Amino acid sequence: MKQSIWKLYGFAWVTAGFFLISLIGHWVFGWFAYVNEQTQFGHPVEFSGYMVEMLRDTLENWQSEFLQLLWQVAGLAFLLYLGSPQSKEGDDRVEAKIDAILAAVDPQNADKLIDEIDQEYCGRHTDPRWAAMRKTGK
Fold it and tell me: Bigger pLDDT: 74 or 134?
């Protein structure tokens, strides 16, 4: 059963919605504040002046908040799930123990069962000792 893109990425859509609403609100209310400030001091209201001020404010906010949080979340996810040796440490140990239990409980069918599980989870067999042992037949 194929899920819709809306369900698969629901959190991303809600986050994008919050982001757009907050960005639009920032720029709209920034316009009112800019017009008020310009008229208060008797300066002309110019769109170019507003753009410079709002771009500066937006990039300043992104630098201090958005990019920092983005790095914390994306960097952690990247390091944790895509290659950090520390992220695989716990999984490798657990997987090695489960593979050993399967081999001890049902030696004739252990390879077949482990292959089926690996295929179901896109062939992600993270225990190099077990993979090497299965290749050599020992």
Answer: 74
- 0.85 exceeded by pTM: no
Question: Has residue 40 got a pLDDT over 90?
Answer: yes
Distances (CA, A) of 60 to 2, 10, 65: 41, 28, 8
Contact 57, 63 (CB under 8 A): no
Residues 70 and 22 in one domain: yes
DSSP the chain: -PPPHHHHTHHHHHHHHHHHHHHHHHHHHHHHHHHHHHHHTT----HHHHHHHHHHHHHHHIIIIIHHHHIIIIIHHHHHHTT-HHHHHHHHHHHHHHHHHHHHH-TTTHHHHHHHHHHHTTT----HHHHHHHHHT-
How confident is the model at residue 73, as a pLDDT? 83
Decide if 77 contacts 65 (C-beta within 8 A): no
* Statement to judge: residues 48 and 69 lie in one domain: yes
Q: What is the pLDDT of residue 126?
A: 58
Residue finishing a domain among 38, 58, 81 = 81
